[in-house]
Amino acid sequence: MSSQQSIHPGTRIGHVHLKVANLQRALDFYCGVLGFQLMQTYCDQAAFISAGGYHHHIGLNTWESLGGSPPPRGTTGLFHTAILYPTRAALADALHRLIRAGIPLDGASDHGVSEALYLRDPDQNGVELYCDRPEELWPREQDGRLQMVTVRLDLDGLMAELGK
Q1: H/E element holding 48?
Q2: In a domain, 2, yes or no
Q3: Integer Cα distance of 156 and 66 in angstroms
Q4: Which of the residues 46, 95, 117, 139 could staple to 129 if both were Cys, CB 3.0 to 4.6 A apart?
Q5: For the segment 46-83, what is each residue's pLDDT rounded down to a tens digit?
Q6: What is the domain count for the chain?
Q7: Coil, strand or helix: which one is 39?
Q8: CA of 54: how far to CAs of 50, 57, 58, 101, in Å?
Q9: 23 alpha carbon, distance to own chain's centre
Q10: Which helix (H) or strand (E) holds 116?
C-alpha cells in the first residue's frame, strides 16, 4: 500500500445518505433539533438537508426502509455519521439543542484533536457531532505523529462557550 500514490489532499466526503423508517420523524430530528435546513423533498420518500444553503449534506430516504427497523447488533454497516461544527461555540449550541430536546448522549469524548458528542438519531443511526481543535494544538509524538486520545469531555466547560 505504501507504494501507491495518496489521494488528492483536497478530497472530502460530500454527503451521506441515510435509510430511515419515517421521513418526517427524521426531519424533526435533523432539522427540528439539530437545525439543518430542508433544501428539497422528493415526493414523500426522500429529503435533502444542509447547513448554509449547500445542495445537501444529508439525504434521508425511505426507498428501502419505510417502516423498517434498525439493523441488529453484530451486523456490518455505517458506525456513525460525523458532523463537523466550525467552532467550539457551535458544538456547544448543538449540545444545548440536544439537552432542550431531551435527546440522550451515548458518550462525549475529547480526542486531543477534536471534541465529540455521540448519540443516536430516531432510526438508531450513530451520529457524532464534533469540532476540531486548531492543527497546531493537536497532540503529537516526538517524531511528529499524531497522538490521539479518548478521554471524557468536560460538558460543563463546553456549555460555558454559550455564556448562558
Answers
A1: strand 46-50
A2: no
A3: 39
A4: 117
A5: 999 999 999 999 999 999 999 999 999 999 999 999 99
A6: 2
A7: strand
A8: 6, 7, 10, 25
A9: 18
A10: strand 114-120
